[in-house]
Amino acid sequence: MIVAFSLTPSAGDETGGVHDAVAEAIRIVRASGLPNETNAMFTNVEGEWDEVMAVVKQAVDAVTAVSPRVGLVLKADIRPGYTGQLSAKVQRVEDALDR
């Protein structure tokens, strides 16, 4: 499965920024060893249900530690038996564009 998720802390640092809290969540994702990528809006993680959801929970917990309230947006592509789709899905679109 691939999960795209975004965390939004309700409170920022002394300047109103939330980048430090978000960076801590991304550190957790990257340390998980699961295939992942981060873009301007979401972090995508690929793996089995339990391992992906455990990483999302750890990321939420990290942000909750510094913010009294956290918003979570999560979208999942659940396709049993398929792996490597984090890049394969994008490659199929790129191939179609090249035709």
UniProtKB/TrEMBL annotation:
GO terms for cellular component: cytosol. Coiled coil: none annotated. It comes from the Bacteria. Residues 3-94 form the Thiamine-binding protein domain. InterPro entries: MTH1187/YkoF-like, Thiamine_BP, UPF0045_domain. Belongs to the UPF0045 family. This is Thiamine-binding protein.
